[in-house]
Design a protein that fits this description.
Pfam families: TsaD. This protein is about 35% helix and about 30% strand. It is of the alpha/beta class.
């Protein structure tokens, strides 16, 4: 925790997203964003993550042990990015006793887009002709996070969406739009494509208050399906039979 100019203690949280091709980071105190950035990370995040965290702390005039907590997306998303993000956070938090809270990536995307409390369909491009998707209406989870092809997910949405237009968010939005249109499902594109780091903090802090911090020894990424490496290996094995 850091001290304000008048000596009061303030709660400072780090929000981190490594679920995609970019690293998103924010430092937040009392709802105010002290620092926020997003940087292209390619497929690994290895080289950029610690440097981005160091730059953020330096820019805000903070030390790592002044953080009250670290909130991060734990999936779904890219396998390597999620592993690097989580292992980095564990390595930073454990020696300092910093609280850590993992937040579902789709929940963050929905919260970034759906401040009005209507129904939000969060959709991420999972590649291999699949999507990660979840449907939220306020605090209710109408479709839990899962992976599937667009037609399958479209049928789920048709069955479970509440009345009114659907708010669409996430980098898989363009991939599911034709299916929703063909099914007569009305939607509005929010324009949100990525999880907002400051929103990761907001949701993470809410979960910290209601659930407490995660056990670092038990915290693992949420993949929703097998990794690309496992799928490729299975294909090679079948091809050799």
């Amino acid at each position: 925790m850091g001290d304000t100019a008048d000596g009061r203690v303030r709660d400072i949280f780090l929000g981190l997203d490594t679920s995609g091709f970019q690293t998103g980071l924010a430092l937040v105190s009392g709802g105010a964003v002290l620092y926020e950035t997003r940087s292209s990370a390619g497929t690994s995040h290895n080289e950029s993550l610690l440097l981005l965290i160091r730059r953020a702390l330096d820019a805000a005039g903070l030390q790592l042990d002044q953080l009250r907590g670290i909130c991060l997306t734990i999936g779904p998303g890219m396998w390597t990015g999620l592993r690097v993000g989580l292992s980095t956070v564990k390595g930073l938090a454990l020696p300092k006793g910093i609280a850590v809270k993992g937040v579902n990536t789709l929940r963050v995307i929905a919260a970034t887009a759906g401040a009005g409390g209507g129904a939000v369909l969060a959709v991420m491009d999972a590649r291999r002709n699949e999507l990660y998707a979840a449907l939220y209406h306020g605090t209710r989870v109408l479709i839990p996070p899962q992976a599937g092809a667009s037609p399958f997910l479209g049928r789920l949405v048709a069955e479970r969406q509440p009345p009114g237009d659907l708010l669409l968010a996430g980098d898989g939005s363009e991939l599911i739009k034709p299916v929703l249109s063909a099914m007569g499902i009305r939607f509005v594109d929010s324009g949100v494509r990525l999880p907002e780091p400051a929103v990761i903090v907001r949701l993470g802090v809410e979960l910290l208050k209601s659930e407490g911090p995660d056990r670092l020894s038990e915290l693992e990424p949420v993949y929703l399906r097998r990794t690309d490496a496992e799928i490729n290996l299975e294909g090679r094995l079948k091809g050799g039979l």
